[in-house]
Amino acid sequence: GAVVSQHPSRVICKSGTSVKIECRSLDFQATTMFWYRQFPKQSLMLMATSNEGSKATYEQGVEKDKFLINHASLTLSTLTVTSAHPEDSSFYICSARQPGLAGYEQFFGPGTRLTVL
Amino acid sequence: AQSVTQLGSHVSVSEGALVLLRCNYSSSVPPYLFWYVQYPNQGLQLLLKYTTGATLVKGINGFEAEFKKSETSFHLTKPSAHMSDAAEYFCAVSDKAGGSYIPTFGRGTSLIVHP
Fold it and tell me: A46, A33, A111: which is closest to A72 by C-alpha?
């Protein structure tokens, strides 16, 4: 199956700093990628849909100036958490759609654990 | 609007016993249905999916699920649980309403397997 990677897998930062998370589709081109946030023992919350070459579409309640998304190529999307605070600590997961696949299946990255001190 | 309900946040079974994880959905149009498994500190891995055709879908690791339109259900089963099946399981539904096919996830069910 298609492979999606994320980097870093784990990051610890100080409050007020910015953190960039990369999501890459390794063996296919993804015109659409998705960013999710997952709190402990909870389901995935869609934050935004990232479209290559255009602005991301954010879900209601997600601050676009706080969570900057850039989808600069067909294999790379980045999520930057700006001026991170402890409440931004969470597990962030990206996914990518492989074009033409039945059911519009998404392939998920391994996730990034962000801890803001 | 689509939605997913997973009954039971935790399911506990003995090794070798039947696994049954329940999922009910609502969708205004024919849905695509998915089951994903998540191990600690990892992303989601697709177990199986229903798009069209045969309503009994077989997936990886011996899991299968049956799409029952009349019951709006897509329950996940495995005849014999293994210790390695202990994980979090998510049911998801997507449909073409709005044209986006963005899935909605259930809250997840934690499968606990006892020796």
Answer: A33
Is residue B26 over pLDDT 70? yes
- The verdict on a CB contact (< 8 Å) between A109 and B43 is yes
| pLDDT value for B97 | 61
Token pair of B89 as six digits: 């399981």
Distance CA A32, CA A46 (A): 13
Select from B52, B105, B109, B111 the residue whose CB has the most chain A CBs within 10 Å, as the one to mutate to test that interface: B105
User: What is the pLDDT, as a whole number, of residue A103?
Assistant: 59
B60-113 residue pLDDT tens:
999 999 999 999 999 999 999 999 999 999 999 987 765 667 888 999 999 999
The size of chain B, in residues, is 115
In three-state secondary structure terms, A42 is coil
On whether any CB of chain B is under 8 Å from the CB of A60, the answer is: no
Asked if B42's CB is within 8 angstroms of A111's CB, the reply is yes
CB contacts < 8 A, A to B, total 51
The amino acid occupying position A113 is R
- The answer to whether A8 and A114 are in contact (CB under 8 A) is no
In terms of Cα–Cα distance, which of A25, A10, A3 is closest to A90?
A10
For residue A85, pLDDT beyond 80? yes
Q: Which helix (H) or strand (E) holds B36?
A: strand B32-38
By Cβ distance, the residue of A34, A103, A111 closest to B49 is A103
Interface check A53 vs B, CB under 8 A: no
